[in-house]
Amino acid sequence: MFESNEVRASTSTKTALDVLDPVKELPLPPDFLWGVATASYQVEGGAEQDGKGPSIWDDFSHRNPSVTSGEDGDVACDHYNRLEEDLALLASYGVDVYRFSICWSRLIPLGGRNDPINEKGIAFYNNLIDGLLARGIRPAVTLYHWDLPLELQKRYGGMLNTAEFQADFEHYARLCFSRFGDRVTQWITFNEPYITALFGFHSGILAPGHSTKTGHDSTTEPWRVGHSQILAHAAAVQTYVTDFQPSQKGAISIVLNSDFYEPYDANSEADKEACQRRLEFYVGWFGDPIYLGADYPASMRKQLGSRLPQFSDAEKDLLKMTAPHNTFYGMNHYTSQFARARIDPPSEDDHTGNVEELTTNSEGVEIGPLSGVSWLRVTHRQFRKLLNWAWNRYQRPIYITENGCPCPGENSMTLDQAVDDQFRIRYFGLYIDAISQAINEDGVKVAGYYAWSFMDNFEWAAGYTIRFGITHVDFPTGTRTPKKSAAYLKETFERRRAAAANGKVKNGKL
Ligand code: GBH
Q: pTM for the whole thing?
């Protein structure tokens, strides 16, 4: 669970660092973009300010404080009230891009297509976007990072009602394109639809907290919720392409996250197939309909039968029509695991493709060194493989829209210790090396990298105990202090891009 997963430093940082590979500082193309990312509920605060309506996260964190470590996002980083300070900080970091998400219930407090619009909410994002552009920073905007207007969950079950949700999301997206689209060149509809479906409607760890324990059917709800996000995404893409893109000229797509999977037993055909199946259940679920205009992967149809919704003829046409307009692949990636084929037939509750996920293989080798959170190990070699997998299957330039880690023991450190984040620096360095190798040695197109996160923030069910920021936030006072990784990112991207410009990379090869 998110909340019980903090890894305290049992060894000194030096020992934790010793187990990591050295960074090679491999070059990147001169036009490679880098930036940092956040999400509205995790940083904004201002939960009831200026007419904002409640989201399912306001409700979930207040109703289930035990699930969120007794914390909520009422204040978070207070980014809503510290906008100027945060803009100045972003500028000082030298980022090319800032990826943030819009809180739907700030713009439309009740969320629906016939509900009133809140101009003060619009004004906040206008100030943010204008402030970025004035500093030469490009906004990359996520429309949905998990904070559905609460009223839509109550009114018709939110994403469980595909037709209503699709229509309301399309209307909300249209509002964003019309008000902000003259200045936004990269749109992301949904952040990690897999996590929304499985953690919101299966384990119940994230809002709205559905699981069998709360009396819901976790054998069907996640697949319905996935279906709704795919169709709402496609409707938003169609709207953008038809009514806005001709004049606004931006790009639109979605962000899919996943681990990469290595076979538990490298000699087992069944385990190798399990890896592929696991990736199809994780990524292909959304990627095949959205990027290929195809049906769900055959492995999913086979296992899930009638529990996996069908696309109508009109929906198939919509997917086929919009697929080519998803011109980039947004990838959130943190870590990897081993996959072992289960011998027993899949349970109705299974969402993995009947695969057991492990951190150690059949020879007792760990997939990678542990970071400051139990689910995240440093697995840069597998990152390179995932880049190849996504490129081969979907053939879209990839933007890494999130990547990062907490340092071991970080939350228990003094400020001086926390800002000296050598473990994070090494993690970034290794993962950026993997991107360079994928580009220059494997021929994969990777166009940008956004570190998660701009600052320590509300880490969902883990509350404030897990810190992913390149900026330290002292939550009681809101004080921001740059960590060393912030300077490292600026310098490493400058060095790596200059190496290419200076001719150290010829014909795309090292
Ligand atoms: C991203 O999700 C989110 O987009 C971002 O908001 C978040 O802050 C960031 O990751 C860091 O967590 O505790 O064993 O149940 C990444 C996908 C899915 C990774 C849930 C952690 C919890 C595993 N996340 N998973 S566990």
A: 0.96
